[in-house]
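Obj.: predict assembly geometry.
Materials: sequence records (below).
Method: joint structure prediction, all chains together.
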Amino acid sequence: MCKSNVMSTAAVRSTTGQRARVHPLPLRIMHWINAVAIFIMIGSGWKIYNDDILFSFLRFPDAIVIGKWAQYGLQWHFFGMWIFVLNGIAYLCYGIVSGRFWQKLFPISPREVFVTVGEALRFRLRHDDLTHYNAVQKALYLGVMAVGVLIVISGLALWKPVQFSELANLFGSFQNIRLVHFLCMTAIVAFIVVHVTLALLVPQSLLAMLTGGPPIDNARDAAPSAAAPIVPEIKPIPEIPTVPNIETSH
Amino acid sequence: MTIRPRTPSLFRPRKPIDQGVLTENRKLIDDINRRGLLRGAVSLGALTILTGCDVSEVDSVQKALRAVSSWNDGVQNAIFRANHLAPTFSPSRVMKPPRFNAYYPIEDVKPVYGATWTLELGGRIEDKRPWRAQQLYALPEQEIIIRHVCVEGWDYIGQWSGPNLRDFLQRVGADLTAKYVYFICADDYTESVDMPTALHPQTILATKYAGEVIGDPFGYPLRLRTSTKLGYKNAKWIKAIEVSNDFRETYWSERGFNWYAGI
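Observations (raw structure tokens):
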């Protein structure tokens, strides 16, 4: 029994060539493609917004928009949309098929979210285990995915209010579609601010999105199945001194 | 006397950062070619400075972006529903007068003199005799109350009437299997639409707005009004119509706006 387990783990290792990591390679590639796509979509979207503003107090400075002229902004937006949508679909399929969403983002309890928010506000959040998402992370990732879907739907309705008139009608008016599209952008920008700030505060999480992060137990990472229930466990991380001990190293 | 311990920064993690990742990827970190990174950063910087901070204008980038725009023309053509009608509205929602749009301000509009104006016909059309305003205005009218959507983002409800374009093209013996219908305008503006759009039931040669002859700024004596295209595709002050199989750039597509511009 034990022996066969060891063998199957070894088999997995030999086929992948390396140990499974907290962020598998396809996921890292999709993350950074998405980062570029979002950058293009937001920058060019701001340029398009400037041509007919929704709020009299808000006009995006020329220095932070993509495209000097309206047509350039539009060209980038209708180029970036393909990357954003195709990559997004690939990501959702990957997350669902691999069981990763189910494993990483659920279950999520509202109580836990409140507790974690409190910890975060007092800077008491623990990030020593990168393989486990806390309740706020779960809520934010699920939320931003929902917003990502809504921004695509509202974008389709904006682009094709006649061809997809059934969809566009759900929004009430054409300007409502613009407003929803704009608010989704605002939510994504807010998410990015929090996401990037936290990634910079906990640099190993940023590094993990480049290198894959710490290796994880194959059994734990595997997609959940009826036969193997997931037991939440916290992996001990070896204590490493922050400051190298100069005296002993000599 | 006690020594007060230094207050740790709020941003400093309480536990030391896990250095495991660093040691594990030591080889990768050592491999980072700093010189190459620097060179790349400098050339990227130079590129943005040289182009006035807009890479969109670099030839290869602009070529690629326009290629995607052409691809998008094809996608829009593929999802076009030939007989799907755009939403229509009640006359109470009509904006009067309509909102002006052109490549110049409303003060620069040069009115067309209706008494001497003629509509020329060209290309794959059997009967190329020109039309005078009163002949066109005598044709059966179709009224549509539809939304005008500008590429800039604004919209309004307009009430347009005039001869249906499909009927008109049939009347003059146009080749309805041709690919494009071109509109040449009195202000040197050019525009074209694909044949499926020209044949759409809500595509008309508008002569009236809200029951009255169209005003000078809005295209008198003849303009295009289709429910399935952005505002700029609706050519105003039309002086010639040509049916053709050859693709030519039009005023805005030449300047980088999407040619198909469907909604």
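Conclusions so far: Chain B touches chain A through 50 residues (CB under 8 Å).
To do: check interface contacts against the pulldown list.
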